[in-house]
TrEMBL record:
Residues 64-531 form the Aldehyde dehydrogenase domain. Keywords: Oxidoreductase. Belongs to the aldehyde dehydrogenase family. This is Aldehyde dehydrogenase domain-containing protein. The active site is at 300. It comes from the Eukaryota. SUPFAM superfamilies: ALDH-like (SSF53720). Coiled coil: none annotated. Gene3D superfamilies: Aldehyde Dehydrogenase, Chain A, domain 1, Aldehyde Dehydrogenase, Chain A, domain 2. Pfam families: Aldedh.
Length: 594
């Protein structure tokens, strides 16, 4: 009976401590979070407004020399324009950010957490608005926006609130063998101004992801948004500025610059570090521009992830994951499931299951709740997708599912930039569609015989962002994944590495290098400084007299003995080294100056 009382008392104490933590760390801070008011009058779609009442925009092949034109890819409704900033204007934005950062660098983590909570509160209260703006500008559906924009951003904020300060505090390291009297640590200081060049596929999260890491680590940031997602980006900046002001910080900590290549090049030349997310071809140009000023660069480039299904996998469970991974946001997924390798015994069943799901996909206007798949953001990309499919069919591929192009939920013609979900079989690696990044709603399925063949096929590609392996045998799946040369791997799932914000995100080969997100991404926004100091005030480093200038005749022998004493592989070597050290010191003391 006494044991039960002990367990009961300990249980009550544990629950009391847990309740205190929940109240202290979560409830009280959230109750104290001020609400912000953001003007959204010009981005809210009025209930009386219909597409027929709006000006239809026809994208031009030649870029306007003065403006970034914005339109809805699903309806072609004109949204307005923004200026193309000149290099001197970009430099002015960076200058303002740099001035604001000088004060922010000394801000407390308490203030930084308050800023994040203000942002989180607004996001939670305005999910629909944020998703509508993203859907209208990028063509993605509301559900895809909620998954890719809201969920991931909230997880990023939550991780920073819980762990951000811990990973930015000084980290103590071992002093080694010779310097036992020293204390070593690594400090993480703000770099200054981070520059980010981000794409169009997730207009909200692509801004908030680098911004949150940069600001929480004490930096300012200037973001060059895609010309294909400028309208939404400039609205999202209002949210950030309102939150900064509410947290007692300068809105100049975060800037957005608009334009094309010249704008991005000016940004690269002006900041302390560049985070680039985009295509491999543009990534090369960013790297070249950064090399002129030796500015460090993070490159997160193209992806063409291998999706491997072994013969013991549950195809009924895997098929929905495969379709979601390939078709999310009309192929606007950030990890790019594009090459599907299925072991022969389950190949036919997998094709049937996937085809059945794809045939049920409803392509329509992004704001319609019945739409499963939205529009393609860039007009020229629709032509590229059709070219890839046509070329593959000419080379021997077969179309298991070829959707009806540009048809809405009721069969009416859609006026926007749409491409039907497509399933290709009998593809091979000689086809361009299996080598180039597709970034569209196309599932290309190829069969394999052995696990080693699956590994060889997965590695036979210039990209190396991520992979997914499905097998009921976890050991088997992990063995396959470990041999694939890529930056991320998921076992019996797809792209969930990004939902774990403690993990780094990035790839190898033509998928880029370095990492954003996770601990590595957060610390990547910092000046990493190694610091060594005396552990105790009464013990200091003293240079032995025979090593002081001019060095003694036996200085080299003394040094060799010292090395043997510290690093000898057995105790006798160490003892002999100590003996020779003492002999050398004794000999040096016997010598008298001339």
């Amino acid at each position: 009976m006494e044991l039960w009382w002990v367990v009961l008392v300990l249980g009550v104490i544990f629950l009391a401590l847990l309740a205190r933590s929940l109240v202290y760390y979560y409830l009280i801070p959230m109750l104290r979070v001020p609400a912000i008011d953001v003007d959204a009058s010009d981005v809210i779609l009025k209930k009386t407004e219909s597409p027929e009442d709006n000006y239809i925009y026809i994208p031009k092949k030649v870029k306007n020399s003065e403006r970034v034109q914005c339109y809805e890819p699903a309806t072609m409704k004109y949204l307005g324009f923004f200026p193309i900033l000149k290099p001197e204007e970009v430099r002015e934005h960076v200058k303002q950010a740099r001035e604001a950062q000088k004060t922010w660098a000394d801000s407390t983590f308490k203030q930084r957490r308050l800023l994040l909570r203000i942002m989180l509160k607004y996001i939670l209260d305005h999910q629909e608005l944020i998703c509508q703006v993203s859907a209208r500008d990028s063509g993605k559906t509301m559900v895809d926006a909620a998954l890719g924009e809201i969920l991931t951003t909230c997880e990023k904020i939550n991780w920073l609130l819980k762990e951000g300060e811990h990973w930015l505090k000084p980290e103590y390291r071992s002093a080694g063998t010779v310097l036992l009297h020293k204390s070593n640590r690594v400090e993480y200081h703000p770099l200054g101004v981070i520059g980010a060049i981000v794409p169009w596929n997730y207009p909200f999260h692509n801004i908030f992801n680098p911004m949150l890491a940069a600001i929480f680590s004490g930096n300012a940031i200037v973001i060059k948004v895609s010309e294909h997602a400028t309208w939404s980006g400039c609205f999202y900046l209002r949210i950030i500025h309102s939150a900064l002001i509410a947290a007692g910080a300068s809105p100049d900590l975060v800037h957005i610059v608009t334009g094309f290549a010249e704008t991005g090049e000016a940004l690269v030349a002006s900041v302390d570090k560049v985070i680039f997310v985009g295509s491999t071809s543009v990534g090369r140009k960013v790297m070249e521009a950064a090399s002129r000023t030796l500015t460090p660069v993070v490159l997160e480039l193209g992806g063409k992830d291998a999706f491997i299904v072994c013969d013991d996998a549950d195809v009924t469970e895997v098929a929905p994951i495969a379709v979601r991974g390939a078709l999310q946001s009309s192929g606007q997924n950030c990890a790019g499931a594009e090459r599907f390798y299925v072991q022969e015994p389950v190949y036919e069943k997998f094709v049937r299951e996937v085809s059945s799901i794809v045939k049920s996909v409803r392509m329509g206007l992004p704001l319609e709740r019945q739409s499963d798949m939205g529009a393609i953001c860039m007009s020229e990309h629709v032509e590229k997708l059709q070219s890839l499919v046509d070329e593959a069919l000419e080379d021997g591929a077969e179309c298991a599912v070829c959707g009806i192009h540009s048809m809405g939920k009721n069969g009416e013609e859609l006026v926007g930039q749409f491409f039907p979900p497509t399933v290709l079989i009998n593809v091979n690696h000689s086809m361009r569609i299996m080598q180039e990044e597709v970034f569209g709603p196309i599932i290309s399925i190829m069969k394999f015989q052995t696990d080693q063949e699956a590994v060889d096929l997965a590695n036979d590609c210039n990209f190396g962002l991520g992979c997914a392996v499905f097998s009921k045998d976890k050991r088997r799946a992990n063995a396959i994944a470990s041999k694939i040369y890529c930056g991320m791997a998921t076992i019996n799932d797809f792209a969930t590495t990004y939902m774990s914000q403690a993990l780094p995100f990035g790839g190898v080969k033509h998928s880029g290098f370095d990492r954003f997100a996770g601990i590595e991404g957060l610390r990547g926004c910092c000046l990493v400084k190694a610091v060594t100091e005396d552990r105790w005030p009464f013990i200091r480093t003293v240079i032995p007299k025979l090593l002081q200038y001019p060095v003694a005749d036996n200085a080299f022998e003394f040094q060799g003995a010292l090395i043997r004493m510290f690093y000898g592989l057995d105790v006798w070597t160490k003892i002999n080294g100590l003996r020779d050290v003492l002999k050398a010191l004794s000999a040096a003391n016997k010598k008298t100056p001339a």
